[in-house]
Amino acid sequence: MLTLQIKQFLMIKLSINNKKYEIDVASEMPILWVIRDVIGLTGTKYGCGKGVCGSCNVLLDGNLIRSCITPISLAEGKNIITIEGVENENKHLQQAWQDLNVPQCGYCQPGQLVSALALLNDNPIPTDDDINTAMSGNICRCGTYTRIKKAIHKAADLNNEV
Ligand code: FES
Ligand code: FES
User: Fold this and answer.
1) Are residues 22 and 72 in the same domain?
2) pLDDT, tens digit, 9 for 90 and up, residues 128-142
């Protein structure tokens, strides 16, 4: 028997990196594919597609989410911060990443930086334990965890310099 799946399309108004958009997409489309394929911001990466690895992390009204498993309908009227918006949100984070040569292959790093942004927004001077807890949802197959921790401490120090 042939089963037809009817998709519900919505006109959704939202902001991405504080820029307003109106988009006509299937309501259940994951935010990741809207960001990458509809808007064209390709910094956010697809890893597992199951909410496990953290490579697709973005902020939705300040909350860290897995964009691969979050439908775009939940973003109506909200602001999404992607890796392309991190520099505007925290001017020292990417600089610290560069200064300490954090990335290896680089694939997981957009998600790592967005998680680090969420951490520093909530906790401007995190301890090692705070960092371990906050970053535990981000997997790096290259094992850059030690450099990530140092870079977060460095960004925190720079942010808190007067
Ligand atoms: S791609 Fe979303 S958590 Fe892995
Ligand atoms: S830098 Fe290669 S997966 Fe993290």
Assistant:
1) yes
2) 999 999 999 999 999
